[in-house]
Structures are given as C-alpha cells and as structure tokens.
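Components:
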Amino acid sequence: MCTVCGCGEGETKIEGQAHTHEHAHDHEHPHDHSHAHGHTHNNVFTHHYGLGPAHAHAPGLSQSRMVQIEQDILGKNNEYANTNRKYFSDRGVLALNLVSSPGSGKTTLLTRSIQDLNSTLAMSVIEGDQQTSNDADRIRATGIKAIQVNTGKGCHLDAHMVGHALQGLQMEEGAVLFIENVGNLVCPAAFDLGEAHKVAILSVTEGEDKPIKYPDMFHAADLMLLNKVDLLPYLNFDVEACIAYAKQVNPRIKVLQVSATTGAGMQAWYQWIMATRQAGLAGHPSLQVQV
Amino acid sequence: MHEMSLCEGILRVLEEQAQAQQFKRVKTVWLEIGSLSSVEVEALRFGFDVVMKDSLAEGARLEIIDVPGQAWCMQCMKPVTIRQRYDACDDCGGHQLQVTAGEEMKIKELEVD
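Structure:
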C-alpha cells in the first residue's frame, strides 16, 4: 500500500489486470567519484561539506551533509491524481469520490442512483474494498461497467490504483464516474484521486457528531448525503445538530437528506449530479451542454 | 493506518533523491507536519521505523517540525490560531474560517552520508 503505486506488497488487485510491474530498484549508478568537493552534479546539488549539521567547514571530520528537498509526502499521489484529472477533463467526465464509514449504505445508494439515471446518463463505477468483488457484482447487475479494486491491507484508494482501473473502463465522453472508496472516514480524506468532488455519505443510524469526530473527511467533502432518513422515526438522531456539526468543520458543505431505500430526497441528489456535470462541461470543445 | 503508506511514500522520495543527489545513507529526516493534517505523529513514528528497515534510511532519526493550525476569520477579517478543524474563532465565536496553515505534510530536509 505505497502512495506511489497501489500494488503495495502485492496486495492490491484490480479486476482484469495482472498487475506485475516491478519498480526497477537496481541502483546501478556508478559511485566512482573520488574528488573532494566544489562541483555541481547535473542540475541540483553542490557537494558542500560546510552544510553539515554544525554548518562547520571541517573536512574529514564528518561526511554527512544536509539536503533540503521540500517535497510533499503525497507528491507522487498528487501527480497521479493530476493525470487522472486531465483524463477526466479531456473526456468531459464528472468523477465523484464517494466516502463514508462501512455500512452507511453507499452501494445501495449507488445502485439506486444508477437505476434511476440509467436512461439519461452514461455511468461507470470503480469499487474499492479490501476484499471481494461483491460490490462490483451488485453494480454490474444493474447493467453498467464496474471495476473492483481490492486494496488488500490498504485502507484507502490512491490515485495510482484509480489510474490503472481507468485503463480497464474505457469511459464514454461526458459520462459520470462514481468511485466508491473503501469504507473508512479517516484515510481516504488525504488521498486525492483526481475527482471533481468528494461526496460524504453519513447514515442516521450512526452518531450525529461524526462530522466533528472525523473532521478531515467532512472538511474535504463538498456534499454530504444524509442517508436512511426513512429510519428517523425510530432513532434519536438530531438532524439539525448533525448539519450544524458538518458546517462547523466545513462552512461550504452542502447537505441533502435522502433515503436510498424509499427514494425520498433522491431527486435532489440527481439534480446536484446533473448540475455539477453541466457546469463541468461548460467550455468543453466537443461536448455540448444539454439543457 | 495510512501513516504506513505515507512512510512508503517518504521512502520512495528518499530513494529518488539518493539517485539524484548522490547519497547512500539517510541519517535524519525532518518532516513538516501540520496539526490539521490527517497525520497521527506517533503512528507515523512507528510506521517510519518499520518501513525504513533494510533501506537506505534504516535506523534514521525522525524529526517532526510541528506547524500550528492557522485560519483566516471571515467575520473578524484577521488570522486566528486553531487547534482543530471545528474550532471557532476565539474572538467572534464564528466558524467562517478559511484554513491558511497547518495542513502541511512535507519532507523538509535530510541529513545524509
């Protein structure tokens, strides 16, 4: 589960792909410079022994030196995310990253959305789970393309896994891609997949204070779907407090109350998808905005 | 436990830098970690030791530079310090805060051989 390449220690599996790239780690660069100092290597660094921890010019005392690199730890992931983002923008694809705890009803919400939108929209799905292709099977039963990514021991999807999955999907122009992330309200917050928006799904069978318990995720999301609202009569769930908590960590977040089982509120969610997709298509060279 | 994969990412950067800047061993790594970044420093330290084993940075010292959370309060029109994302502005009690610092996750500097 490295941030560079989802393959990790051979744990990640992407359906339909024998994923066996073996990052050539064959450090074979010649280390045959015997000269002391003062010359520039390629483009970046000058050997300068005065850059040691004590910043002292004392040749022979210590060979260690300081290297300033200023690199983002997630830099590699973000490069892959940008590649994905370009892929989406070239094709006019709206990519949504669906994040939630396990059991919030993500897959049910997704299958319902696909059934309801199937006649108006081209859609594809990338399913992230630690194991099994059960969720992708459920999506495929609706008749649309879905690729399962098993993260193995990994706790989140990263941009590189998504990039590989895209190769197998061959997305239509102007389509909507739902990326169902691993059920986890912590780790997926940090990993940009190249999506246009993160959509957090919270069900009313969970605690209403989840937005402040897991602030990073609700801060990163642009939309929160409060799911299973048909169960509210049987629960002590304070909807107003929940929305207030979400706005507390993210003043810009929009909240929709839905029930994937009864269909209540789902139209508002579909309108959000259509409006967001059309806004994304504005100015796209080959795709016309449908009214 | 994404701290583990962050450490894998750090190792990847160290290996690339070792090639580019011609060093063989990493003795100390300075990371800049914002207090609002989704990093648990203790988990990162644990993951660091495990991931760096048998690499060019085996046994390397990990130094964390803590970056406090800062935000711009839209109501007060001034910067304020925050400890968590859901903190309110100390002055006006509002939540119209735009985070300006504290989300960093950066490899700042290395001591190498």
